[in-house]
């Protein structure tokens, strides 16, 4: 049951991720304005925003102008749904399943934008880092038992070390490569991404 719920939630999240992956590289407001057809610009009606189903029923075309709706959207939705279901199957505890899914959804969004634009925006790597710290504190066994009287020092030690090692290690590698080869070998966002991942797995 949890896997079905998380999978369904993932489909909804995936719809939002598809929107963010389109608007963020364009510098458009992520939370402002309704979704619109890329062909005619008309706002999408609610029934046309049902994850995967609406795309399949419309055969991948806008019902108003006939413009092709890229297959990237249902693929992102399906991937996010799979992430949610997989997280629930790996972690029967809902809190851990949700945290794992949140990590997966963020990495999915980052992967899509990086694949399409070769860009790792701070607007995504910073929330990834902060959410890793929050998850470490919220899921710490001692904090779970103590209710809202959370301790920060113990739970944050490993994530902060992981973030420092991830960021510092890749930054040092990029620095040495630049000194030896005289050109950049890594993108500027790569150390921040690895540091953010380190906050989750540290």
Question: What does this protein look like?
Answer:
By secondary structure, the protein is an all-alpha fold. The chain has two domains: 1-119, no CATH class; 121-202, no CATH class. The chain has helices at 2-23, 53-57, 72-90, 94-117, 122-138, 141-145, 153-181, 190-201. Helix 5 (122-138) packs antiparallel against helix 7. The longest helix is centred in the last third of the chain and has 29 residues, at 153-181. It is flat. The mean pLDDT is 91.
Summarize the topology.
Elements: H1 2-23, H2 53-57, H3 72-90, H4 94-117, H5 122-138, H6 141-145, H7 153-181, H8 190-201
Helix pairs in contact: 1-3, 1-4, 3-4, 4-5, 5-7, 5-8, 7-8
From the structure above, extract its key features.
single chain, mainly alpha, 2 domains, 202 residues
Low-confidence stretches: none
In which range does the helix fraction lie? 55-70%
Mean pLDDT: 91
Number of domains: 2
Molecular shape = flat
SSE pattern: HHHHHHHH
Strand content: under 5%
Radius of gyration: 20 Å
Structural class: mainly alpha
Q: How far do the termini sit from each other? A: 30 Å
- What composes the largest sheet? none
| Annotation field: number of helices | 8
Task: Summarize this structure briefly.
This protein is an all-alpha fold and 202 residues long. It has helices at residues 2-23, 53-57, 72-90, 94-117, 122-138, 141-145, 153-181, 190-201. It has two domains: 1-119, no CATH class; 121-202, no CATH class.
């Amino acid at each position: 049951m949890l896997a079905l719920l998380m999978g369904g939630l993932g489909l909804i999240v995936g719809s939002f991720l598809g929107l963010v992956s389109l608007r963020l590289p364009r510098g458009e407001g992520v939370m402002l304005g309704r979704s619109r057809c890329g062909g005619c610009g008309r706002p999408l009606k609610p029934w046309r925003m049902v994850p995967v189903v609406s795309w399949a029923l419309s055969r991948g075309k806008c019902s108003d102008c006939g413009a092709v709706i890229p297959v990237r959207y249902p693929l992102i939705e399906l991937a996010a749904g799979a992430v949610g279901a997989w997280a629930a199957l790996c972690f029967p505890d809902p809190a851990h399943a949700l945290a794992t899914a949140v990590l997966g959804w963020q990495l999915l969004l980052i992967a899509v934008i990086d694949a399409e634009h070769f860009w790792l925006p701070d607007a995504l790597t910073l929330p990834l880092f902060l959410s890793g710290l929050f998850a470490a504190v919220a899921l710490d066994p001692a904090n779970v038992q103590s209710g809202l009287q959370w301790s920060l020092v113990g739970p944050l030690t490993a994530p902060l070390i992981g973030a420092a090692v991830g960021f510092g290690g890749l930054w040092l590698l990029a620095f040495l490569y630049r000194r030896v080869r005289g050109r950049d070998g890594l993108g500027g966002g790569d150390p921040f991404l690895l540091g953010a991942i380190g906050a989750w797995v540290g």
